[in-house]
């Protein structure tokens, strides 16, 4: 015989609780039938007290309710579905016959005991024979109804448990995915810091070789401040205004290097300043424009930074006046800055993010980014959020 598992034992402990509801239901049905019998007899010209009507009707319902725990116990011990054996059907068939006979026998005896001494009482054996012929088949269906109700309760309970486990698993999976995504994003972001630091130190080295002490001092000061901001800047998502302030520090370093050969033109709308963007989004794009655009132009050049909110999306563009991608020169669209930016946007926003680069019709190269517009909230926990 199968040994009930822990979950089945837990369901067994609930048999009494379910049976209590059955008793209450039996009393309610019995009282309803007693009321109907009492009103029917008196309306037909007969005489019957309400107490006698209850003695006639309620015993049979109370007997059924009293036997319900035994039916539930049999249904629990010998399940019909989910691993139940064929012999369990035979056991239930025999149990249904016993249930029908026993319930009618007890109901007849109970009713006979309560009505004993009252005029017009039907003898016990005659009453038992009458109810046996009238209600035996009905009680078989009553047994089947009890077994069906038990299995329905068991399946609904297991379904709720599965839904709860599925919800818990979904939460754990979501947290794991978020942690993994944040780890990937942090790895990509940390690749940018050494890249930026190397280029800045290279600039310092060039200025030092030229003997430009004031320029070296200014860049070292700005670099120190940027490194401090970078260490404090641990969030993945920041307001665009904060990203632009960090970018200003980097541009100031490059202005020392290029002097009057570098011009940065910024066109940012007011509503875009509060938009949420990935941290260090613009710095590698601007660095790419300065290094491969302005740096490769003999007379220097310009870098244009634009940001605007259109159609529920934040549109960003970094463009330079240099030779462009088609001219080559080490910029084929696969540098660390562009690749990391593309990867971070994919991790954060999925397919709803737009990332494009190419040669501008007016000359130079451009990089365009479009992401869902969200108002930045200070102190919001870092979380990768896909979709619009």
Name a few traits of the molecule.
alpha+beta; 388 residues; two-stranded antiparallel ribbon; disordered C terminus; 9 helices; five-stranded mixed beta sheet; rod-shaped
Q: What distance separates the N and C termini?
A: 56 Å
Low-confidence segments, given as residue ranges, are: 379-388
List the strand order in the largest sheet.
2-4-5-7-6
Number of helices: 9
What portion of residues belong to β-strands? 5-15%
TL;DR?
This protein is 63% helix and 12% strand. By secondary structure, the chain is an alpha+beta fold.
General description of the model:
This protein is of the alpha+beta class. Helix content is 63%, strand content 12%. The chain contains nine helices and seven strands. The protein has helices at residues 6-12, 15-43, 50-77, 86-115, 124-209, 213-232, 240-258, 282-294, 336-349, and strands spanning 237-239, 262-268, 276-278, 301-310, 313-320, 354-359, 365-372. It has a five-stranded mixed beta sheet. The chain is rod-shaped and about 125 Å long.
């Amino acid at each position: 015989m199968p040994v009930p598992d822990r979950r089945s034992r837990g369901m067994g402990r609930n048999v009494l609780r379910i049976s209590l509801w059955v008793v209450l239901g039996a009393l309610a049905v019995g009282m309803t039938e007693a009321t109907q019998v009492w009103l029917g007899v008196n309306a037909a010209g007969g005489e019957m007290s309400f107490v006698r009507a209850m003695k006639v009707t309620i015993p049979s319902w109370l007997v059924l309710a009293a036997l319900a725990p035994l039916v539930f116990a049999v249904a629990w011990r010998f399940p019909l579905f989910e691993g139940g054996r064929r012999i369990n059907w035979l056991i239930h068939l025999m149990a249904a016959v016993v249930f029908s006979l026993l319930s009618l026998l007890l109901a007849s005896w109970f009713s006979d005991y309560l009505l004993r001494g009252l005029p017009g009482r039907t003898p016990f054996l005659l009453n038992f024979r009458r109810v046996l012929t009238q209600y035996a088949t009905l009680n078989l269906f009553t047994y089947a109804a009890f077994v069906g109700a038990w299995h329905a309760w068991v399946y609904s309970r297991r379904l709720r448990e599965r839904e709860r486990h599925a919800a818990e698993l979904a939460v754990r999976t979501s947290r794991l995915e978020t942690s993994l995504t944040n780890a990937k994003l942090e790895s990509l972001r940390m690749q940018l810091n050494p890249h930026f630091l190397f280029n800045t130190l290279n600039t310092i080295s060039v200025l030092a070789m030229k003997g430009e002490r004031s320029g070296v001092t200014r860049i070292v000061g700005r670099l120190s401040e940027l490194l401090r901001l970078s260490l404090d800047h641990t969030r993945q998502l920041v307001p665009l205004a904060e990203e632009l302030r960090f970018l200003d520090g980097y541009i100031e370093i490059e202005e020392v290097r290029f002097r009057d050969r570098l011009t940065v033109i910024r066109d940012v709308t007011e509503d875009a300043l509060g938009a949420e963007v990935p941290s260090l989004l613009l710095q590698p794009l601007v660095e790419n424009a300065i290094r491969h655009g302005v740096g490769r132009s003999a007379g220097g050049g310009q870098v244009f930074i634009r940001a605007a909110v259109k159609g529920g999306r934040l549109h960003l563009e970094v463009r330079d006046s240099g030779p462009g991608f088609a001219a080559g020169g080490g910029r084929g669209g696969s540098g660390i800055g562009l690749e990391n930016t593309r990867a971070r946007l994919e991790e954060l926003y999925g397919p709803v993010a737009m990332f494009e680069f190419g040669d501008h019709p007016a000359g130079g190269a451009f990089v365009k980014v479009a992401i869902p517009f969200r108002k930045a909230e200070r102190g919001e926990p870092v979380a990768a959020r896909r979709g619009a």
